[in-house]
Design a protein that fits this description.
The complex is a heterodimer of chains A (377) and B (154). Chain A is built from one helix and 28 strands. The N and C termini of chain A lie far apart (55 Å). With 377 residues, chain A is mainly beta. In chain A, the strands form seven sheets. In chain A, strands 17, 18, 19, 20 and 21 form a five-stranded antiparallel beta sheet that branches. Chain A has a four-stranded antiparallel beta sheet with strand order 1-2-3-4, with no helix packed on it. A four-stranded antiparallel beta sheet of chain A has the order 5-6-7-8, with no helix packed on it. Chain B is of the alpha/beta class and 154 residues long. Chain B has six helices and six strands, in the order H-E-H-E-H-E-H-E-H-E-E-H. In chain B, strands 1-4-3-2-5-6 form a six-stranded mixed beta sheet, with helices on both faces. In chain B, helix 3 links the parallel strand 2 (39-44) and strand 3 (70-74). The model of chain B is unreliable at 1-16 (pLDDT under 50). Classes of the chains: A mainly beta (377), B alpha/beta (154). Chains A and B meet through helix 1 of A and helix 3, helix 4, helix 5 and helix 6 of B.
């Protein structure tokens, strides 16, 4: 039967070599950054088989000499929607990444912590407690004073089970500052296999996870769930495909507990990036945005009080540019889209991070370097 | 020694088609080479979990319908060409015309091919004899491929 779900078929052996080579030399444009409580900007990036951390005291114009995080070299996924993650709580700097394995689509979720403000790091550990060489990828991380939560896409339940749809979302939590992790827990079965995961803290501090799910046989729409609770379907695009979109979403939660989500769909009825606010059980209409003829995609969202900011990437045939839309009434009305930055070469996807003095766009480019721009309050 | 190398080169030439580099004008080249003829353009990647199933179906199609014209375009990089050929060959697509993306900005090539293709893979275009095309994302079932062949390939 031709409807066989691709991911269930063992790929030919040669996939392994191609995969590994690809991981070794893929462009390392995908970076992560975070401000510490003193306003210093920290950036983590992959150079060869090492994760390197550096910091800037002038808002990203100049960076310190890098510190190598993993002494033992390993392949690190840093391409497209796969990227290292950084979170800072007080003096603690948490890093997580996906170690790419030689086997196709396989990886391990890795973690290291600095307890001394980035002077030194613990030896990296593997967080997934299923250690077979299968998919454990697309690490996401959320940290606060109460603890640290990692989530990722995990194929342990679907390996050697042809009838299993997609992968699963697994999580692990540390409440001792990253010294140890509780046992892995499955948040949901049947996630899509190859999209980033979004995470945000709910009003009570509970992590909320947002991902592309497989509903029914092959509808790849979005779901969210509070840690330890059942999932809710939050997009009804009805995108039915046996394909890898390589295109996930992001979530921000405001002081009233409303979820602000952005995601991408290729569904024919309304393709492109979408935004929606969810107030409790009420899902407001979803709003498409971005120029479809310019590959609008890979959006990020941030919220502060009543202000909501969306950024995404477009390519007009010549330049990659980061677009922004802004709302001052919790996502009800929006500004017209404006260009924040552009480059003529290859470029990472945009990220929004919060600093002491407001919201910042983080964007890495091949020709114009790393950009950090303050974009709002 | 020289002879052995030469022999190896000849043998390897005989066993696989040479992958061509896909640049912003390549789609026009592909179309010009096929004026008045229907074909299937299949975009795939070694990093796509659903692509093995697509290659399997296309290989099966090529086996059952030797007259069908398939063009494979991998969205990977030129230095992977040989390995990509090996992969295609392992699915019975060794004689199929093959291309690989050759631009540091894949978005540029996507833009040339189809502005409304968002990068999801596999991605397939059915071109009829007049080169009107129909795009599909995701693995195309073999029955669907065969019904297209029945309709368009004489």
């Amino acid at each position: 039967m031709a409807h066989d779900h691709a991911a269930h078929q063992a790929p030919k052996r040669d996939y392994a070599k191609v995969w590994q080579e690809n991981q070794e030399k893929a462009p390392r444009l995908a970076v992560a950054a975070s401000f510490d409580p003193a306003g210093r900007l920290w950036r983590v990036q992959t150079v060869g088989k090492h994760l390197q951390l550096s910091h800037s005291d002038d808002g990203g114009a100049h960076f310190s000499a890098p510190l190598t995080v993993n002494r033992e070299p390993e392949l690190i996924s840093s391409d497209g929607e796969a990227r290292p993650q950084i979170a800072i709580v007080g003096k603690r700097i948490y890093l997580s990444w996906t170690q790419a394995l030689p086997q196709p689509f396989a990886g391990h979720i890795r973690f290291a912590v600095s307890l001394d403000g980035g002077l030194s790091f613990s030896d990296p550990i593997t967080v997934n407690d299923d250690t077979r060489p299968i998919t454990h990828r697309f690490n996401a991380m959320l940290a606060d004073q109460q603890g640290l939560t990692l989530s990722w896409v995990d194929k342990r339940d679907g390996t050697d089970r042809a009838e299993y749809r997609g992968a699963a979302i697994y999580t692990a939590r540390s409440t001792d500052g990253g010294r140890s992790f509780e046992a892995n827990r499955k948040l949901a079965d049947h996630s899509c296999e190859c999209c980033r995961i979004g995470m945000a803290s709910d009003r009570d501090g509970t992590p909320v996870v947002f991902w592309r799910h497989i509903f029914g046989r092959n509808v790849r729409d979005f779901a969210l769930a509070r840690l330890g609770e059942p999932l809710h379907r939050v997009s009804e695009d009805d995108w039915k495909i046996d394909a890898c979109p390589h295109h996930g979403g992001a979530i921000a939660i405001d002081a009233e507990g409303a979820r602000h989500i952005v995601w991408f769909t290729g569904a024919e009825k309304s393709p492109g990036p979408h935004y929606r606010r969810i107030d409790g059980k009420q899902m407001n209409d979803s709003m498409p945005f971005g120029n479809l003829d310019a590959q609008a995609g890979h959006p990020a969202v941030a919220v502060s009080g009543n202000e909501v900011t969306l950024v995404w990437r477009e390519f007009d045939g010549n330049a990659n540019r980061i677009m922004r839309m802004h709302s001052t009434n919790r996502g009800t009305d929006w500004s017209t889209p404006g260009i924040l930055a552009s480059t003529r070469g290859a470029a990472d996807y945009p990220q929004l991070i919060r600093g002491q003095d407001g919201l910042w766009l983080i964007w890495n480019t091949a020709e114009d370097g790393f950009k950090a721009l303050r974009v709002g309050t | 020694m020289k002879f052995v190398l030469l022999l190896l080169a000849v043998l390897s030439d005989a066993t696989h088609a040479e992958t061509r580099f896909f640049t912003p004008s390549s789609l026009q080249t592909i179309l010009a080479d096929r004026t008045g003829k229907p074909f299937i353009l299949s975009l795939w990647s070694n990093a796509c979990a659903h692509c093995p199933a697509e290659l399997k179906n296309l290989g099966e199609l090529a086996r059952k319908h030797p007259g069908v014209d398939i063009v494979l375009v991998a969205t990977d990089t030129p230095d992977e060409a040989q390995l990509l050929e090996k992969l295609a060959r392992s699915y019975g697509l060794g004689k199929t015309e093959q291309w690989v993306f050759a631009d540091p900005q894949p978005e540029k090539l996507r833009f040339e091919i189809d502005r409304r293709w968002y990068g999801e893979l596999p991605r397939t275009y059915f071109f009829n004899a007049r080169h009107r095309r129909e795009g599909h994302s995701g693995v195309i079932p073999l029955e669907r491929l065969e019904s297209w062949v029945g309709e368009h390939v004489k």
